[in-house]
Amino acid sequence: MSRIDQAFTRLRGGKRKALTIFLTAGDPSLARTVDLVKAAADNGADIVELGLPFSDPLADGPVIQESFLRAIAGGTNVIKSLAMVERLRISCDVPLVAMLASTLVINHGTPRFMKDAAAAGFDGIIIPDAPVDEYDEFLEPARKAGLDTILLAAPTSGPARMKRIAAISTGFLYYINVTGVTGGADAKPASIAKDVKTLKGMTKTPVLAGFGISTPAQAKAFAAVADGIIIGSQAMRVIRSVKRTADAPAALGAFVRSVRNGMDGR
Amino acid sequence: MTPDEQGHFGVYGGRYVIETLMPALEALDREFEQAMASPEFRKLLDRYRSTYIGRPTPLYFAKGLTEKVGGARIYLKREDLNHTGAHKINNTVGQALLAVRMKKKRVIAETGAGQHGVATATAAALFGLKCDVFMGAVDMERQKLNVFRMKMLGANVIPVTSGTKTLKDAMSEAIRNWIGTVRETHYIVGTVAGPAPFPKIVREFQAVIGEETKLQMLVKEGALPDALVACVGGGSNAMGLFHPFHDDATVALYGVEAAGDGLSTGRHGAPLNRGKVGVLHGAKSYVMLDADGQVMETHSISAGLDYPGVGPEHSYYKDTKRAIYGAITDKEALKAFETLAKVEGIIPAFESAHAVAYALKLAKKMKKNQSLVVCLSGRGDKDVEVAQRYFGDGGERP
Ligand SMILES: Cc1ncc(COP(=O)(O)O)c(C=O)c1O
What we know:
heterodimer; A: 266 residues; alpha/beta; TIM Barrel; 50% helix; 13% strand; B: 398 residues; six-stranded mixed sheet; 18% strand
């Protein structure tokens, strides 16, 4: 059973919903990312999604775009990100999902990337610009390496596409809450309930809701209609809000704790 | 070349976009195929082509240039004489008609040189559509005249300040905007790039360039040309010219990329000459990528060629060797800009000047009984300010 599957088994046992925190690898630095992942895991994140920075992320709003550009300017690249994950794995067992643009995977050599990512300690992969129609070239190599393949479904998808997406999603399925890019504000839990139910009728794979969630109250409301939630831009905003980067892990930890408490109704 | 159902040209093309856009791309493909199969739509398109755009555009025998070079006979396909001054309007009128057919009330576009932005703003004014154009802040500065034209036409020009502040980021921003507005907005992509079905749609609307050229050459020369030459930014004027000649094996195809300061300097916009296979703006193609796979900064004096990617069908043409892709430096393009002005009385767009420069070199190597056609994709009005800085007020190089 994969680390991600184990996490969901535990969550189901405790009747809790999954909290996934997205962090950019290398912002403010790769060394700091190690501390940030641990802070998130120690304070109630069940899964951490690490975004490997790309110069032209098309589905991201300004917060993640700028975070990626800072990471790249600081020298972060795919190879250094994988090395960081390898170091992180020595002292941290949280399920880790790599999120990166298709062109970075292809440039690294797709089979080689999957192997290297799994060897470094990643458990799953999200390629946001590889929809189910283009996933063939990634599916086999990811499966072979033992990585869960996490695909996205959107409010625009409709049942026929959802079925195809559900058929090849493992670990979890990522439901995009809003018709828009990351970091927007106005996701509504009521509007996603129907789609999540449709997806859950198609697969046993847990369905997590992401995009536009930033507060503990929103986290709670979305967790009520899905198997869990994903928070990205807001986590990066919290990290940016501190004056000294050394304080970032504590600030992130406190934020994650408040979201966890919100979701658990505490 | 007919792309497969997912819009692949060989291994290139496809739809590498977030799921949110996929249904709209599928719907657009269906709508486009239905429209092109409809005699009424075709009639409407033809009517706008002849009465509004000003087609057919002339195929002009450039006697002066031909004599100066002393090689193949040089013809210019005068896309610069289209309404709004470039080939871009062939595509925007077609896509605006599609938008109307799909009952979309708003169109968006990216623009580099501003020609596609102007052509989109024009079509939007014509059909009563709301229009937002995304343009890099750097390009807004170097193509001021076109910014004013777009505003005059009622479009909203949105400055893009992220990344390199040029065409690449304008297109990224347009795609991001579309992800959030896809239900009511049609995105008029300006070149044969982007996710499927855009490379096919833009090619089909631009193929009128090659179709006319073929007929005109048969009338003038009684034979097909021996070579075709066009500049390649995203590649729409080139593909528009090449596509109808794809199966005519005797016609050699030459695409011309921007060599900027020189291919060896790294400061250029030549993905087909110096790029790697990757994904940019939704399609797999040759892209200028660094070792890590990040998209590189490009350089060209011509805003319309200052782009790190290229349409996927050109990548396919390159691999199958159907076309040869060369490159012309800023300096060479400026020289051709001056030559064409002084010898033929035509001031070309900087983009088109790249094609002219390449054609002059090529014609020299060809025989006198051979002929070539250069796509003069646009006129140079938008570039005179920058040219003036280079040439000085007397129009002579210092
Ligand atoms: C006059 C002209 N020619 C060529 C281009 C390059 O585009 P494409 O390669 O799509 O023809 C542009 C783009 O702005 C242009 O304005």
